[in-house]
Every structure is written in structure tokens, then in C-alpha cells.
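Feature request, filed as a ticket because there's no other form

It would be nice if the structure record came with a short human-readable summary line next to the C-alpha cells. Right now we just get the raw output. Example of a typical job, pasted below so the devs can see what we mean:
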Amino acid sequence: MKKQKKILAALFAATLFLGTALSVFAGGGKQQGGEQITIGLALSGIQVNSIFIDMRRAIEEKCEKEGYRLITADLLENGPSKMITFLETCLAAKARVVVYQNIAEDAYADQLNQLKAQGCILGSYDNPTKIAQYTSQASNYELGRTIGREAGKWAKANPGSKKAAICAYSLLDFLVERTRGIRDGFKEACPEGQIVFEIDAGFVQQGVAAGEALIQAHPDIQVVMGINDSGPVGVFEAFKAAGWNFQNHPIALFGCDASEDAMRALRENDMFKATIYLDVVNQVIQLYDRCLEMALTGKFDPSNANVYFPMQPVYLENAGIVGTRL
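Raw output as currently delivered:
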């Protein structure tokens, strides 16, 4: 009994120490042998980015339904070091499934290989993997090119300055690659266009600041593109607060992810013109399901080992493809 109390006390202290970077949801699900099944989920912006919040909630609902214990981590800043802490927590908890946004696999390869040696099934989200059994990913460069091409086609077809801005995010390599694709796609579709402004704005408040800066520095901006929806949504909020709308400032905003915020902005039929639908919430759910099935049955499905996200531009006219969750 004393030993059990010491273990519980240590776990409680570890949870307090990790604060918002790691959180634990405990249910009552059991695996063979009577031990509770533990799941790990690590994503960037899991507490603050709308689309990642949607992903987290979807997995939380699944774990709650089955009574599984869920350990989560937000990799927003200092991702590799947070990932190592998260994976070590999963190792100590003998997690059966870990789904993680693969931001720098070499930095935490040792922990991943230790988890595999313990029998854990790994699901790599958003990037290729050398270690995980399953992956769901976007080609981030091609995704960026899709965003840039859609924005460039609009700029070329409509009168204006042909000046463009990018809401980028330089702290994560895969988003740097996506930004590179945005630049190339825009120039491909609108060779006469100029990218005159680029700033880190991966979250709504950063987007608001970017919009305020654009109003001062480039009031003739014609297009704003983002590596996700949150930056352009924030820019849209800043423009509206300044009294701008499409009628008095014909600017087009282009995002990515088809988040709830973006779909609401799109349906206002104003400056926010398009987003890219990746069905990422469903992609993460499916990745989790593949990993869990292997964990429970021991059967690996090579035909679903590597799944690429579909990429479909969404305008007001075809917004219904996103589904009814909004």
C-alpha cells in the first residue's frame, strides 16, 4: 500500500510539473491482463489552434468512450524538447498507442524506438517517418503550392496591385516548407505579382497584429495567404476592426485547414475567399484507429501504412464539401 501511494504521489507531482505542456485524461479502459490502456497524443497548438483543438477533442471523445487514459502534449514551442518529455512520460506509462506530429524525428528517435520495443504502436502525423508503423501526411510543399496557386489565380484575374502577404511560421520546419510552396505557387499563377510582406502569424492574435501592420505598411495589399487558417482569420478581424471590407478594400484572404473559424469567415462572403480542405480531423481519427487496431489485434495493414491527405480548395460555392460539423 505504501509503495502504491508513493507511485501515485510521483505521478501526481510529474503532472503538476509538466503543467500545460502535458495533460492526462484517465478513464477506465482495460487491456488483456487488467492493465489500463494508455494513449499518447502530441500536436502543435493543441490548446490554442482551432483545427488542432478539434483533433484533440475527437481523440478525447474516443478515449472517454472506451475508458482509455490519454496523455497529451502541445508542441507549439520548443517542440523537440517537449516531445522528448512527452515520449518519456509515455514510456513510463507503457502507452499502447502514440500519435504524434512528427516535427523532428531524429531528435527523439531513441524514445520512439524504446516505445516500439515495449510494443507501442506509433502513428506519425503530417510528415514522413522512419520509425512509426503508420503515417498520415501532407506533402507540405505541394500543399503550399496549392494555397499559393489559388491566391495567384485570383490576383491575376482581378484588378489590383498584385501585392501579396504571407502569414508564415518559421519555428516549425514543415511550415517553412509549406511557406516555400506558397511563394512558388503564387509566382507560378501570377508571375507579375510581388510578395511584399511575410510575418510569423500561425495563430489568430498573431494574425490580428499582422493585419494591423499591413494596414500601415501596405494599404494597397491585394492578397493575404496563410500556412493555416488562423493567421488570415486574424488579419480579417484586424481589417474589419479598421472598417475595411471587400467593397471598400477588395482584398482576398486564403487559408488552409477548413477550420471552424475559417468556414465562418468564408460564409460571411467578404474578404476571406478560400481555404484548403484536408479533412485533417478525420485523418487523425483514422490514424488513431489504425494504430489502435494493431495494438489490440497485433495485425499490421501495409496497404494503409502511409496515407496522404486529400487537398481540395474550398470557396463559398463548394463549402458544403466540408461537412456538417460546422
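Something like this underneath would help us a lot:
The chain is about 45% helix and 20% strand.
The first strand starts at residue 22 and ends at 25.
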